[in-house]
Write a structure and sequence with these properties.
The complex is a heterodimer of chains A (about 300) and B (about 260). Chain A has helices spanning about 45-50, 70-75, 95-105, 110-120, 135-150, 165-180, 195-200, 220-225, 240-250, 270-280, 295-305, and strands at about 5-15, 15-25, 30-35, 60-65, 65, 80, 155-160, 185-190, 205-210, 210-220, 230-235, 255, 260-265, 285-290. By secondary structure, chain A is of the alpha/beta class. In chain A, the strands form 3 sheets. A 6-stranded mixed sheet of chain A has the order 6-7-8-3-9-10, with helices on both faces. Chain A is elongated. By secondary structure, chain B is mostly helical. Chain B starts with a helix and ends in a 9-residue tail after the last helix. The relative contact order of chain B is 0.15. The chains are: A alpha/beta (about 300), B mainly alpha (about 260). The interface of A and B includes residues 14, 78, 80 and 84 of A.
């Protein structure tokens, strides 16, 4: 199966500075891939390479089945919302979208239709004739999304689309992003700092740090790979508490009535359960604290720092 | 080239409907009005012979018209970078060559507007001596060549300038340097070295050619050699701006462009 986006050992150097090193990943149709990383991790560089704004120093990639050696064709199939994109203040949103559609080869009439439809889709139909200079941050971001869709792209790349938005604006933006993947069937690369946003929206995640990919997979897979300490919460009969503490030694145990909180500290996730069963202690419940993406993110980015 | 035409159309709308070009053209009109009024009516300044008056007005118009084209071109790339609108343009399938070509052509519109304004002044000042036609023809030829040369120079500077301010300042400085020899006393430009200096500099050569036509009443072909450097500079810099722009137009200015 051909992936919609595929990168193989893509790298970018500026002299001695390595901005991106051997990035390899793939994304498929209808997928929302969250691209995470601290400042300077290489997210924007990766996006600019994949959208053909920058040339890679080495490596190959393809977008919508088009190899990186045909950048104009890639741009024809890709929609991008750049980080902190600027807008012509003295144009109306409708004029702006019509111009962008024309640059993608639409006829004058088709550009008109496309602009009207997109303004409606992002909830700006009633402000389409207003100057962009009068727009709020949230409206500009929605306009940016509309601009990214003027060419009906197979791949949509969004760099910090919720940056500076209030919670309601963020929610609205995430809804639009889900619709782009769900209803349009586009592959979305969502570049963000907000881990909750990724957990809520993305099907898969790619974590970058210092120009390298340090993890990728589903949100659950990446979260489970976190090196951060996890805890097991165990309920037993209160009279078995002291026997359980002995059985679990030397693991750190907090005892409250019949509830034990055990720090795994590198032990296998079912190790406490095995020890309690071996000690013939009746276990009423056994819960592992779910690994969170934020744990994984911090563990992986701090470990590499 | 269809995409270049779309870029040109949008640039023209931005320049003219956005008000910037209209403001500059209005300022240009005021400047020409003051100049024409002074040379035509002021008792201390109207000592100039009528042909000299037309020549002075035309030369100022060519110089300022070319300046407007230069400054517009100098803002074309670096200004978009600073306004963060360049990336969106680069993300379209339009080639870099077409983007630069559209912007270069739009910058030239300032010169053509300036020339349209000067027609009335030259006609008025040149009436009675039958020089208006020749003056305007030499003006459009020389002015267009100089505008192409200077706008291309502005685009080149804008491609590599680390900021818009640097681009505009450097362009203005180079323009002043090119025009400086026109202010030298005639003695300083006599002899073979002075003659060479005037001929090699496209600005002084072009202005000299206008003077020969308008003031000295020379024929078109008699001094056509003076057009050599404006023609070469316009062709060379336009080709250079397009070629370099097609390869080097990027989000970053400065040495990394």
């Amino acid at each position: 199966m051909t992936h919609t986006v595929e990168a193989n050992a893509v790298g970018k150097r500026y002299g001695e500075l390595i901005a991106l090193e051997d990035l390899s990943f793939a994304a498929d149709q209808g997928e929302i891939l969250g691209v995470l990383g601290p400042n300077g991790a290489g997210k924007t560089t990766a996006i600019r390479i994949l959208t053909t704004i920058l040339e890679p120093t080495h490596g190959t990639f393809s977008v919508a089945g088009v190899p990186h050696t045909r950048p104009a064709e890639i741009r024809r199939r890709t929609g991008v919302l750049p980080e902190s994109a600027g807008y012509p203040e003295r144009q109306t949103a409708a004029e702006y979208l019509r111009y962008q559609a024309r640059l993608f080869g639409r006829s004058r009439a088709a550009a008109h239709t496309t602009a009207a439809a997109l303004l409606d889709e992002v909830g700006l139909a009633d402000r389409g004739r207003s100057l962009i200079g009068t727009y709020s941050r949230g409206m500009r971001q929605r306009l940016g999304i509309a601009r990214a869709l003027v060419n009906e792209p197979q791949v949509v790349v969004l760099d910090e689309p919720t940056l500076g938005l209030d919670p309601a604006g963020q929610r609205q933006m995430l809804g639009i992003i889900r619709r782009i993947a769900g209803e349009r069937g586009a592959t979305v690369l969502l570049c963000t700092h907000l881990l909750a946003e990724v957990e809520e929206t993305c099907t898969r995640v790619l974590i970058l740090n210092r120009g390298r990919a340090v993890a990728q997979g589903t949100v659950a897979e990446v979260g489970a790979r976190a090196a951060a300490p996890r805890t097991a919460t165990i309920r037993i009969a209160p009279e078995d508490a002291e026997r359980a503490r002995t059985a679990l030694s030397p693991l750190h145990v907090e005892l409250t009535g019949g509830t034990l909180r055990v720090s795994l500290d590198g032990a296998a996730r079912n190790e406490p359960l095995r020890r309690l069963v071996d000690a013939s202690i009746d276990v009423r419940s056994y819960e592992l604290e779910a690994a969170r993406l934020s744990d994984a993110f911090l563990a992986m980015t701090e470990a590499a720092a | 080239m269809r995409a270049a035409a779309i870029v040109l159309g949008q640039e023209l709308r931005d320049l003219w409907l956005g008000g910037r070009a209209l403001t500059l053209s209005l300022a240009f009109s005021v400047l020409l009005s003051v100049l024409a009024y002074l040379v035509a009516t002021n008792s201390a300044l109207n000592f100039l012979e009528q042909r000299e008056t037309v020549n002075l007005t035309l030369q100022v118009a060519v110089a300022v018209g070319a300046l407007l084209a230069l400054l517009t071109a100098a803002d074309a790339i670096s200004g978009e970078r600073e306004r963060r609108t360049l990336e969106t343009l680069l993300l379209t399938p339009v080639s870099r060559l077409e983007i630069v070509g559209g912007k270069l052509a739009a910058a030239l519109s300032l010169w053509f507007a300036a020339f349209a304004i000067v027609i009335a002044y030259v006609w008025f000042l040149g009436r009675g001596v039958g020089i208006a036609g020749d003056a305007l023809t030499s003006g459009i030829v020389v002015g267009t060549l100089l505008a192409i040369f200077l706008a291309s120079l502005g685009i080149l500077i804008s491609l590599f300038a680390p900021s818009n301010r640097v681009s505009l300042s450097l362009s203005l400085f180079l323009l002043l340097a090119l025009f400086a020899p026109t202010q030298l006393p005639s003695g300083a430009t006599s002899g073979w070295a002075g003659d060479l200096l005037l001929r090699v500099n496209p600005v002084t050569a072009g202005e000299h050619y206008i003077g020969r036509i308008v003031v000295n009443g020379r024929g078109w072909s008699e001094d056509v050699a003076w057009l050599a450097s404006p023609v070469v500079a316009a062709a060379m810099f336009a080709a250079l701006a397009l070629a370099v722009g097609a390869r080097q137009l990027s989000l970053r200015g400065g040495a990394s462009a």
